[in-house]
Each structure stands twice: as structure tokens, then as C-alpha cells.
Design a protein that fits this description.
The chain has 395 residues and is an alpha/beta fold. The protein has 13 helices and 15 strands. It has helices at 20-37, 51-54, 60-65, 85-95, 137-153, 166-176, 180-191, 195-204, 209-221, 225-237, 243-262, 323-329, 349-358; strands spanning 41-42, 48-50, 67-70, 77-80, 102-109, 125-132, 160-165, 267-270, 284-289, 298-302, 316-322, 341-343, 364-366, 381-386, 389-394. The strands form three sheets. The chain has an eight-stranded mixed β-sheet, with helices on both faces. The protein has a four-stranded mixed β-sheet with strand order 13-12-14-15, with helices on one face. The longest helix is centred in the middle third of the chain and has 20 residues, at 243-262.
Length: 395
Amino acid sequence: MSKTDRWLLPDGVDELLPPEAWNVELLRRAMLDVFARYGYELVVPPLIEFLESLLTGTGNHLDLETFKLTDQLSGRLMGVRADITPQIARLDSHACKSGRVNRFCYVDSVLRTRPANMLGTRSPLQIGCELFGEADQAADLEIISVMLAILKVANIERVHIDLAHVGIFKGLVESAGLHAADEARLLDALSRKSVPDLDVMAREAGEQSELIALVCDIARLSSGHEALQRIREQVQALRTPLPAVLRALDELEAVAHEIARRFPSIEIGFDFCELRGYNYHTGVMFAAYTPGIGQALAKGGRYDDIGKDFGESRPATGFSADLKVLAGLAPKQGHKFGSGVLAPAGNDMALLQVIENLRQDQRVIQLLGTEPESETYGCSHRLVQQDGHWQVVNI
């Protein structure tokens, strides 16, 4: 890097400048207030941890996204977090171990080796919440309710929720008895919704062709409630009973019904190819979208086994979002203290006292000795001395 381009940032690494930084901060405060009203406690995990802790229960996907370095004190491998969820699982298992339901919220930076998409960032500002200790669907519905409340704060009015359930694919794979390599190949094709690749696998499957053909149909059926019913009918028609898949469909239908009842304005769909976090998700998964944006605004789901390696396997569900993305869609709020008052330069005690009093509830910028009075810094009012008294007047 030459001296002339040292100011350049790495690809996918961005920064917040005025006024965007204030917009993000004000939205962060409003969203933390939402978490607090639902009873979620704020936690701030460290940016860096030993690698084994960061990757517990998450599988290879997060391993590839994590920057790694060697700790000079212990000699052990460490990682810069790419996701905060595993850290929350560690907190629930040890630092905040209580035996009861724990509700945690967070908002902090994460760093990833690669962006989620071509236009994405490698340094999201991750915001979310996690609920530990409750296996009932009431927990999933609470998390979805909080997610929708967060999107409402960002003034995102038209929301579409895609629902999925990892148990559908897992149940089919377990019944088919596929080898690990074939399972990975099938998972990859389904995640890409590659019907041609799935058709080839169905033809090659031999005695398991019926189950693989059903996976092919799943790739074609991601849509509304009728798709859910179609898959149910096909599973019930199989020669081999698949009770685990039917239970997953029942859970998915129950969650969809309750969301529709509580939030009638929310559009609901099903995406049976949505298998992100396949290695650690255990139940219902969900993602929120809005028209015109080609990526999920928030996503989450159930991951009951993530704390097992920490010695505390507890039911868990949660969601996360990138606060920078949400702030980019939210109306610009401007500074919390308004446009402000411009005060003249000087060290007169009476002037300084007036400025101090004004700063209790508004923005005041005092000019320095060399600054011209023509510079207003966006202030709408000016502090002037009239008849021996300091007065605030319009600019």
C-alpha cells in the first residue's frame, strides 16, 4: 500500500460517518428500549474469544467466516466473532446460569471473512435477542413478536415472513439413510433450489428414489399454505411412515396460524429450501423480508443443542439483524437534540453559564476564536447579546 492510499478500507469493511452514525445510534437506542419492554437483559460479550468457544455447535459454516489469530499470552488459537449467538449460549451456560428462562439482547460489531452477498458488508452491526430455557412454541412466537416490533421501530411497514423447519429435511435424510457425502450433496442442491441436480440424484438413488423425489418436490413447492398441505399429503402417502417429518409440519403450521392470528397484516410464506444453520438449528426457522430488498432484514429460529458443548443443553430460540441495514431503510431522524444553537466565541462567565444551561436539553455549538460567524454548522438559532442579556434568536 502506497502513502497515497493508506486511507482506503479493505473490501467489505465500512465505517459510519455523520449524519449516518447518529441515525444508527438513535435507532439502536430505540430498539434497546423495545428489548427492555419485553424483559430482555442487555449483554456485551467480548469481540475476541478462544476459537473452540466461538465455533461450538455451529459447524463448518461459521468456521469459514471467522478471522483467526494466535493469542500471544496462551499460545492458543483465538477468533474474532463472526456471530454473537454462540457467545450468548456460553453466557447462558456459565456466566448467567440460573436454571430458569433467560432473555438476553445485544447489539455490537461482528467481523466476517467474506460478505453474505456481493454488495454486503464484512463488518455488520449485529442486533438481536435470544431466549433460553423454554421449549414451548410460545418462546418462538415471542421472539418473532420482538423481531416484528424491532422492524416497526425502523418504520418497515410491509413485512413478509418466510417460515421453514429444519426437521423436514433432517427427517427425510435420516429415513433415507444417506451417506454423509450424499447428504451434503443433497443439502447443497436443495439450498440452491437446483431442481436439475435434485432430479439427477433422484434417478441415482435406487430404492430411496421415492424420498429423494419428495425432496425434489419440496424445491418446487416453496410458496403459500397450499405447499405445506401438499407436502403433508405426500409424506402421508409414503410407504415408510415419517412421524418426525409430520411433527415438523405440525409445528410449522401451528406457528404460521398463530402469527396470522396475532399479526393479520403480515404476509406469511414457506421456504422449504431455507436450510441456513442446518448444523445447529433444530426446529422452526424464520426470515423477515420487505418488498424491494433482496435480502432478509432479520432471521432466526430454534437451536436447542447449541449449548451442549458448554455442558448445558437448553432449549433456545432467537433472531438477529444488521442494524446498519435497518438504519439504511429507516427514516432519517436527525440529531436527538435538534438542529441546535450557535453561540459566539468568548470566555465570559455569563456567556458560558447560558451555554451550559442551554446544553441541558439541546445542542449548542460555541464558535472558537478563529471560526467565522458565517459558519452555522446547521444550527437554526443563534445566541446573541441584546440589551445586556443573552437571547436565542432565529438565524
